[in-house]
Amino acid sequence: MTIALELRGIAKRFGPTRVLRGIDLQVQSGERHALIGPNGAGKSTLFDTISGRTKPDEGRIVAIGIDITGRAPQRISRVLARSFQTTSVFTGLSVLDNLRCAALGSASSRRIDRWLPSRALEDRARAMLDAIGLAAHADVPAARLTYAEQRALDLGIALATDAPLILLDEPTAGMNRAEASRALALIRATTQGRTLVVIEHDMDAVFGLADRISVLVQGRVIATGTPAAIRDDRAVREAYLGESR
Ligand SMILES: Nc1ncnc2c1ncn2[C@@H]1O[C@H](COP(=O)(O)OP(=O)(O)OP(=O)(O)O)[C@@H](O)[C@H]1O
Ligand SMILES: [Mg+2]
Q1: Whose CA is closest to 121, among 150, 101, 151, 149?
Q2: Cβ atoms of residues 27 and 5 within 8 Å
Q3: Whose CA is nearest to atom 27 of ligand 1?
Q4: Which residue of 14, 49, 79, 120 is 20 to 30 Å from 40, comparing CA positions?
Q5: Residue 211 gets which letter from DSSP?
Q6: Whose CA is nearest to atom 13 of ligand 1?
Q7: Is 19 in the pocket of ligand 1 (CB under 6 A)?
Q8: How close is the Cα of 54 to the center of ligand 1, in Å?
Protein backbone atom coordinates (compact mmCIF):
# COMPACT_ATOMS: atom_id res chain seq x y z
CA MET A 1 0.00 0.00 0.00
CA THR A 2 1.33 3.42 -0.86
CA ILE A 3 0.60 6.43 1.24
CA ALA A 4 -1.25 9.27 -0.49
CA LEU A 5 -1.10 11.75 2.35
CA GLU A 6 1.12 11.84 5.38
CA LEU A 7 1.02 14.40 8.17
CA ARG A 8 3.87 14.43 10.65
CA GLY A 9 3.65 16.46 13.81
CA ILE A 10 1.49 19.26 12.43
CA ALA A 11 1.13 22.09 14.93
CA LYS A 12 -0.63 25.42 14.46
CA ARG A 13 -1.45 28.22 16.84
CA PHE A 14 -3.40 31.42 16.43
CA GLY A 15 -1.94 33.82 18.98
CA PRO A 16 -1.99 32.00 22.29
CA THR A 17 -4.48 29.38 21.10
CA ARG A 18 -2.99 26.04 20.10
CA VAL A 19 -5.44 24.82 17.50
CA LEU A 20 -3.44 21.84 16.17
CA ARG A 21 -1.20 20.06 18.68
CA GLY A 22 0.96 17.58 16.81
CA ILE A 23 -1.16 15.78 14.24
CA ASP A 24 0.17 12.52 12.78
CA LEU A 25 -1.98 10.94 10.10
CA GLN A 26 -1.46 8.57 7.20
CA VAL A 27 -4.03 8.16 4.44
CA GLN A 28 -3.49 5.21 2.12
CA SER A 29 -3.73 5.59 -1.61
CA GLY A 30 -7.32 4.90 -2.71
CA GLU A 31 -8.67 5.19 0.80
CA ARG A 32 -11.72 7.22 1.80
CA HIS A 33 -10.84 8.74 5.12
CA ALA A 34 -13.30 10.73 7.24
CA LEU A 35 -12.29 13.34 9.77
CA ILE A 36 -14.81 13.88 12.54
CA GLY A 37 -14.75 15.85 15.77
CA PRO A 38 -16.62 18.47 17.76
CA ASN A 39 -17.02 22.07 16.62
CA GLY A 40 -13.76 23.96 16.98
CA ALA A 41 -11.63 20.79 17.11
CA GLY A 42 -9.40 22.12 14.32
CA LYS A 43 -10.68 20.11 11.34
CA SER A 44 -10.96 23.01 8.89
CA THR A 45 -7.67 24.46 10.12
CA LEU A 46 -6.03 21.13 9.37
CA PHE A 47 -7.44 21.28 5.82
CA ASP A 48 -6.11 24.86 5.57
CA THR A 49 -2.61 23.69 6.43
CA ILE A 50 -2.74 20.73 4.03
CA SER A 51 -4.07 22.83 1.15
CA GLY A 52 -1.61 25.69 1.69
CA ARG A 53 -4.04 28.33 2.94
CA THR A 54 -2.08 28.62 6.16
CA LYS A 55 1.39 27.42 7.07
CA PRO A 56 1.82 25.00 9.93
CA ASP A 57 4.13 26.22 12.71
CA GLU A 58 5.62 22.75 12.93
CA GLY A 59 5.47 19.49 11.02
CA ARG A 60 5.64 18.16 7.49
CA ILE A 61 2.98 17.35 4.91
CA VAL A 62 3.73 14.85 2.14
CA ALA A 63 1.14 14.33 -0.60
CA ILE A 64 1.60 11.77 -3.40
CA GLY A 65 5.26 11.57 -2.48
CA ILE A 66 5.85 15.33 -2.66
CA ASP A 67 6.65 17.49 0.35
CA ILE A 68 4.03 20.25 0.05
CA THR A 69 4.53 21.82 3.48
CA GLY A 70 3.73 25.53 3.27
CA ARG A 71 3.28 25.53 -0.51
CA ALA A 72 0.68 27.93 -1.92
CA PRO A 73 -2.64 26.38 -3.06
CA GLN A 74 -2.04 27.12 -6.75
CA ARG A 75 1.29 25.28 -6.58
CA ILE A 76 -0.31 22.05 -5.42
CA SER A 77 -3.49 22.06 -7.52
CA ARG A 78 -2.21 19.14 -9.62
CA VAL A 79 -1.99 17.02 -6.54
CA LEU A 80 -4.86 18.21 -4.43
CA ALA A 81 -8.39 19.62 -4.83
CA ARG A 82 -10.26 20.99 -1.87
CA SER A 83 -13.79 22.20 -1.15
CA PHE A 84 -14.63 24.62 1.64
CA GLN A 85 -17.08 24.48 4.50
CA THR A 86 -18.76 27.59 3.13
CA THR A 87 -19.67 27.88 -0.51
CA SER A 88 -16.95 29.28 -2.75
CA VAL A 89 -18.32 29.15 -6.29
CA PHE A 90 -17.73 31.98 -8.76
CA THR A 91 -21.13 33.64 -8.33
CA GLY A 92 -20.82 35.76 -11.50
CA LEU A 93 -20.11 32.77 -13.75
CA SER A 94 -22.69 30.33 -15.02
CA VAL A 95 -22.91 26.91 -13.42
CA LEU A 96 -21.34 25.26 -16.45
CA ASP A 97 -18.54 27.83 -16.62
CA ASN A 98 -17.70 27.15 -12.97
CA LEU A 99 -17.22 23.49 -13.90
CA ARG A 100 -15.30 24.34 -17.06
CA CYS A 101 -12.88 26.42 -14.98
CA ALA A 102 -12.37 23.52 -12.59
CA ALA A 103 -11.76 21.06 -15.43
CA LEU A 104 -9.45 23.57 -17.14
CA GLY A 105 -7.34 23.87 -14.01
CA SER A 106 -6.70 20.16 -13.90
CA ALA A 107 -3.39 18.60 -14.81
CA SER A 108 -4.56 16.56 -17.80
CA SER A 109 -6.13 19.60 -19.47
CA ARG A 110 -2.84 21.42 -19.12
CA ARG A 111 -1.09 18.53 -20.79
CA ILE A 112 -3.61 18.23 -23.63
CA ASP A 113 -4.01 21.85 -24.62
CA ARG A 114 -3.20 25.00 -22.77
CA TRP A 115 -5.39 27.41 -24.66
CA LEU A 116 -8.42 25.78 -26.21
CA PRO A 117 -10.98 23.91 -24.17
CA SER A 118 -10.60 20.39 -25.49
CA ARG A 119 -13.48 18.05 -26.18
CA ALA A 120 -12.45 15.95 -23.18
CA LEU A 121 -12.55 18.96 -20.93
CA GLU A 122 -16.02 19.99 -22.14
CA ASP A 123 -17.24 16.43 -21.71
CA ARG A 124 -15.93 16.31 -18.18
CA ALA A 125 -17.62 19.59 -17.23
CA ARG A 126 -20.95 18.45 -18.71
CA ALA A 127 -20.75 15.00 -17.13
CA MET A 128 -20.18 16.64 -13.76
CA LEU A 129 -23.10 19.00 -14.42
CA ASP A 130 -25.39 15.98 -14.83
CA ALA A 131 -23.85 14.15 -11.89
CA ILE A 132 -24.56 17.00 -9.48
CA GLY A 133 -28.12 17.34 -10.77
CA LEU A 134 -27.75 20.87 -12.12
CA ALA A 135 -28.13 20.24 -15.87
CA ALA A 136 -31.29 22.35 -15.95
CA HIS A 137 -29.30 25.30 -14.56
CA ALA A 138 -26.24 25.08 -16.82
CA ASP A 139 -26.41 28.67 -18.03
CA VAL A 140 -27.72 30.23 -14.83
CA PRO A 141 -25.28 32.46 -12.89
CA ALA A 142 -24.19 30.54 -9.82
CA ALA A 143 -25.41 33.44 -7.66
CA ARG A 144 -28.99 32.49 -8.52
CA LEU A 145 -28.74 28.93 -7.24
CA THR A 146 -30.17 27.93 -3.89
CA TYR A 147 -27.68 27.34 -1.09
CA ALA A 148 -27.90 23.57 -1.45
CA GLU A 149 -27.41 23.85 -5.21
CA GLN A 150 -24.32 25.99 -4.62
CA ARG A 151 -23.00 23.30 -2.26
CA ALA A 152 -23.56 20.70 -4.97
CA LEU A 153 -21.66 22.94 -7.39
CA ASP A 154 -18.81 23.32 -4.87
CA LEU A 155 -18.57 19.58 -4.80
CA GLY A 156 -18.65 19.36 -8.58
CA ILE A 157 -15.83 21.92 -8.81
CA ALA A 158 -13.59 19.87 -6.53
CA LEU A 159 -14.45 16.62 -8.28
CA ALA A 160 -14.15 18.00 -11.83
CA THR A 161 -10.41 18.39 -11.37
CA ASP A 162 -8.42 15.22 -11.80
CA ALA A 163 -6.35 15.76 -8.68
CA PRO A 164 -5.57 12.39 -7.12
CA LEU A 165 -6.20 13.70 -3.61
CA ILE A 166 -9.56 15.26 -2.75
CA LEU A 167 -10.35 17.10 0.49
CA LEU A 168 -14.00 17.93 1.16
CA ASP A 169 -15.04 20.06 4.13
CA GLU A 170 -18.59 19.17 5.19
CA PRO A 171 -19.84 18.61 1.64
CA THR A 172 -23.42 17.88 2.70
CA ALA A 173 -23.85 20.80 5.12
CA GLY A 174 -27.06 22.69 4.41
CA MET A 175 -28.50 19.99 2.18
CA ASN A 176 -31.75 18.18 2.86
CA ARG A 177 -31.74 14.38 3.16
CA ALA A 178 -32.39 13.72 -0.52
CA GLU A 179 -29.73 16.19 -1.63
CA ALA A 180 -27.24 14.85 0.91
CA SER A 181 -27.77 11.26 -0.16
CA ARG A 182 -27.32 12.19 -3.82
CA ALA A 183 -24.16 14.13 -2.93
CA LEU A 184 -22.79 11.14 -1.03
CA ALA A 185 -23.48 8.78 -3.89
CA LEU A 186 -21.71 11.21 -6.18
CA ILE A 187 -18.73 11.46 -3.84
CA ARG A 188 -18.55 7.70 -3.64
CA ALA A 189 -18.69 7.30 -7.43
CA THR A 190 -16.32 10.08 -8.40
CA THR A 191 -13.67 9.33 -5.81
CA GLN A 192 -13.30 5.73 -7.00
CA GLY A 193 -9.58 5.18 -7.51
CA ARG A 194 -8.71 8.52 -5.91
CA THR A 195 -7.96 9.34 -2.31
CA LEU A 196 -10.52 11.20 -0.26
CA VAL A 197 -10.36 12.98 3.05
CA VAL A 198 -13.77 14.26 4.08
CA ILE A 199 -14.89 16.26 7.10
CA GLU A 200 -18.45 15.32 7.84
CA HIS A 201 -20.85 15.83 10.71
CA ASP A 202 -23.54 13.46 9.50
CA MET A 203 -22.65 10.18 11.21
CA ASP A 204 -24.69 8.01 8.87
CA ALA A 205 -22.83 9.57 5.97
CA VAL A 206 -19.45 8.99 7.59
CA PHE A 207 -20.10 5.39 8.49
CA GLY A 208 -21.46 4.62 5.03
CA LEU A 209 -18.67 6.30 3.09
CA ALA A 210 -15.40 5.97 4.97
CA ASP A 211 -12.93 3.10 4.95
CA ARG A 212 -11.33 4.62 8.04
CA ILE A 213 -12.15 7.46 10.37
CA SER A 214 -9.94 9.76 12.42
CA VAL A 215 -11.34 11.63 15.37
CA LEU A 216 -9.96 15.07 16.11
CA VAL A 217 -10.54 16.57 19.55
CA GLN A 218 -8.92 19.81 20.70
CA GLY A 219 -6.27 19.69 18.03
CA ARG A 220 -5.24 16.07 18.55
CA VAL A 221 -6.14 12.84 16.78
CA ILE A 222 -7.53 10.70 19.59
CA ALA A 223 -8.35 7.67 17.44
CA THR A 224 -8.04 6.30 13.91
CA GLY A 225 -9.73 3.14 12.73
CA THR A 226 -12.50 1.45 10.79
CA PRO A 227 -16.03 2.77 11.31
CA ALA A 228 -16.85 -0.23 13.50
CA ALA A 229 -13.74 0.30 15.65
CA ILE A 230 -14.47 4.02 16.01
CA ARG A 231 -18.08 3.36 16.93
CA ASP A 232 -16.92 1.07 19.73
CA ASP A 233 -14.03 3.22 20.92
CA ARG A 234 -14.68 4.33 24.45
CA ALA A 235 -12.63 7.54 24.32
CA VAL A 236 -14.38 8.54 21.11
CA ARG A 237 -17.82 7.91 22.54
CA GLU A 238 -17.01 10.03 25.56
CA ALA A 239 -15.31 12.80 23.65
CA TYR A 240 -17.58 13.05 20.70
CA LEU A 241 -20.31 10.61 19.82
CA GLY A 242 -21.78 10.82 23.31
CA GLU A 243 -22.25 14.54 23.14
CA SER A 244 -24.94 14.34 20.46
CA ARG A 245 -27.19 12.15 22.58
N1 LIG B 1 -7.72 32.53 11.48
C2 LIG B 1 -7.98 32.22 12.77
N3 LIG B 1 -7.60 33.03 13.77
C4 LIG B 1 -7.84 32.72 15.06
N5 LIG B 1 -8.47 31.60 15.46
C6 LIG B 1 -8.88 30.73 14.51
C7 LIG B 1 -8.66 31.00 13.12
N8 LIG B 1 -9.17 29.97 12.41
C9 LIG B 1 -9.68 29.11 13.32
N10 LIG B 1 -9.51 29.57 14.57
C11 LIG B 1 -9.91 28.88 15.82
O12 LIG B 1 -9.35 27.59 15.76
C13 LIG B 1 -10.24 26.64 16.36
C14 LIG B 1 -10.50 25.53 15.35
O15 LIG B 1 -11.30 26.03 14.28
P16 LIG B 1 -11.70 25.13 13.03
O17 LIG B 1 -12.51 25.99 12.14
O18 LIG B 1 -10.48 24.51 12.48
O19 LIG B 1 -12.60 24.02 13.72
P20 LIG B 1 -13.50 22.90 13.06
O21 LIG B 1 -13.11 21.61 13.71
O22 LIG B 1 -13.45 22.98 11.60
O23 LIG B 1 -14.95 23.29 13.60
P24 LIG B 1 -16.41 23.20 12.90
O25 LIG B 1 -16.87 21.79 13.09
O26 LIG B 1 -17.24 24.15 13.69
O27 LIG B 1 -16.26 23.59 11.46
C28 LIG B 1 -11.48 27.41 16.75
O29 LIG B 1 -11.39 27.69 18.12
C30 LIG B 1 -11.40 28.68 15.93
O31 LIG B 1 -12.02 29.73 16.58
MG1 LIG C 1 -14.80 23.35 10.13
Answers
A1: 101
A2: yes
A3: 39
A4: 79
A5: S
A6: 40
A7: yes
A8: 12
Ligand 1 neighbour 85 (Cβ under 6 A)? yes
The answer, yes or no, to whether any atom of ligand 1 lies below 6 A from the CB of 14, is yes
Nearest atom, ligand 1, residue 15 CA: 4
Q: What is the pLDDT of residue 185?
A: 87
* pTM (two decimals): 0.89
Per-residue model confidence (pLDDT) at position 112: 47
pLDDT for 3-18, tens place per residue?
999 999 999 999 999 9
CATH number of the domain enclosing 144 = 3.40.50.300
The alpha carbon of 61 is separated from its chain's Cα centroid by a whole number of angstroms, namely 16
First-to-last C-alpha distance (Å) of the chain? 37
Task: Flag whether pLDDT at 109 surpasses 60.
Answer: no
C-alpha to C-alpha distance for 103 and 144, rounded to whole angstroms: 22
The rounded Å distance from CA 39 to ligand 2 centre is: 7
Residue 122 vs residues 60, 129, 222: alpha-carbon distances, Å: 37, 11, 44
134: CA distance to ligand 1 center in Å? Answer: 32
Residue 119, phi then psi, degrees to nearest 5: -60, -40
Beta-carbon contacts of residue 220 (< 8 Å; ≥ 6 apart): 21, 22, 23
pLDDT tier for residue 96 given thresholds of 50, 70 and 90: very high
Number of domains forming the structure of the chain = 1
DSSP assigned state of 164? S
Domain containing 13: what range? Answer: 3-244
The span from the CA of 48 to the CA of 209, in Å, is: 23
